[in-house]
Amino acid sequence: MFELLPLSLICLLLFTPLDSATVLPGISSSPFGLSRRTTNPLLSSLQPRSQLESEANGTMFLWVIQDTYQGQNFFDRWDFYNYSDPTHGTVTYVNRSDAFDLGLAYVTPQNQVIMKGDNTTWLASGQYRNSVRISSQKQYNTGLFILDADRAPWGCGVWPAFWTVGGGAWPYTGEIDIIEGVHDNQHNQVTWHTGPGCSLTPSSNFTGTSVATNGQPNLDCNGLLDNNAGCGVVEWSRASYGPTFDAQGGGVFAMKWDDQGISVWSFYRAAVPTDIVSGSPDPSTWGKPVATLEPAGCNPITNFVNHSIVFDITFCGDWAGNSYATSGCPGTCADRIMDPSNFVNASWIINSLQVYRKQLVYGGVSGAESHHFLSNQVVRWMPLVLVAVSIALLGV
Ligand SMILES: *[C@@H]1O[C@H](CO)[C@@H](O)[C@H](O)[C@H]1NC(C)=O
Ligand SMILES: *[C@@H]1O[C@H](CO)[C@@H](O)[C@H](O)[C@H]1NC(C)=O
Ligand SMILES: *[C@@H]1O[C@H](CO)[C@@H](O)[C@H](O)[C@H]1NC(C)=O
Ligand SMILES: *[C@@H]1O[C@H](CO)[C@@H](O)[C@H](O)[C@H]1NC(C)=O
Ligand SMILES: *[C@@H]1O[C@H](CO)[C@@H](O)[C@H](O)[C@H]1NC(C)=O
Ligand SMILES: *[C@@H]1O[C@H](CO)[C@@H](O)[C@H](O)[C@H]1NC(C)=O
Ligand SMILES: *[C@@H]1O[C@H](CO)[C@@H](O)[C@H](O)[C@H]1NC(C)=O
């Protein structure tokens, strides 16, 4: 499934000299024994670009960038969804030309990507509010997805999501809801929807709380049960959704999907790890995720296939409409939708969305034993190889 590069190329990738202002984290725990404390001018001029991690079986890998969605070209590789909302929102999803013409999707001169619900039009009773839903043209099978956003939509009657969904018949190719909430909730909810046979493992290995149905934790991810509820986990952080997320400058959400399972982390702005900022993400250093779907309860490869990435903002509907009366929001959702000033916070402000793929550092087809042998040899000889490559590169 993962592509393989020759070791020499990886060395080049890893140890191309960076400018001296770039200081990356994790150097002192580098598997190569290079240390920030080193006084050797040759070695100290070489900073790893990416962080090596190792699989349970000892195979080394790193996350390398696959796709970057940001800035003026952001919308080029997305489709605008212009059908009725399958979750029954009182929304009209507009097509690409309308989205740009109506100012519901654009990129600012500062390269921030904006998607929003209409906040300028008064509606008659029963009329639907314009908004956008976009899907990545590219489909993914595994990856590390990192969204940096200054704001995410919220407000009474508003129901936004940042999610991925399989290309086949729903829910059999899976759905991963990374950011989702309604009204002025303050806690993000991560949810999986799958075909039958998938469950959340009751586990202390994530920091969130599983969503209960009728007082019992709902661990069954089968999207066909419980009104399509799926299996959800609510984050503990008050800055993970809504007013506080926006007020403190947003942050970063990361979703890691590989054969170890599917995990989500969120970091409010001041806590974004430097390895994410520098473009060399190392999830093994991020601490416990807020939510994890472990392979013990759900095969993350067979239940999640050909995923597009989706952003949307809907109104009322199955979640925001059905929960409105108990939300503390004023009046009814149907009334709420009419006044445009109720939707001033229903907007995404996105700095970037990056997708990384797992790159095994070496490999072959000759079987597990030689793999393991290779792995030991590589670790043993890596420092020497690196010095040789460095000397060749720098001409020292
Ligand atoms: C959606 O847009 C496509 C082309 O952009 C068009 O062919 C189709 O008729 C539109 N569907 C609706 C429901 O507006
Ligand atoms: C976009 O939708 C509008 C209706 O709102 C329609 O008039 C227009 O033809 C559509 N554009 C395309 C490219 O489908
Ligand atoms: C996933 O996409 C590939 C390539 O388009 C296709 O061959 C395959 O049938 C798809 N798998 C499912 C389960 O939809
Ligand atoms: C939690 O993580 C630890 C270390 O990764 C692992 O040994 C343990 O089995 C996990 N617990 C559960 C319940 O999955
Ligand atoms: C929008 O956000 C601001 C700042 O948090 C808040 O004061 C205001 O009430 C919000 N408006 C709506 C309609 O949610
Ligand atoms: C609509 O919302 C945007 C933020 O998305 C805000 O800048 C603008 O002032 C709002 N317009 C009105 C008329 O409230
Ligand atoms: C180690 O695990 C990775 C990921 O599961 C796999 O791709 C690789 O083939 C495994 N290596 C060996 C030697 O089994």
From TrEMBL:
Keywords: Hydrolase, Signal. One of its GO terms (biological process) is glucan catabolic process. GO terms for molecular function: hydrolase activity, hydrolyzing O-glycosyl compounds. SUPFAM superfamilies: Concanavalin A-like lectins/glucanases. CDD domains: GH16_fungal_Lam16A_glucanase. InterPro entries: Beta-glucanase-like, ConA-like_dom_sf, Glycosyl_Hydrlase_16. Residues 1-21 form the signal peptide. Residues 78-328 form the GH16 domain. This is Glycoside hydrolase family 16 protein. It comes from Jaapia argillacea MUCL 33604.
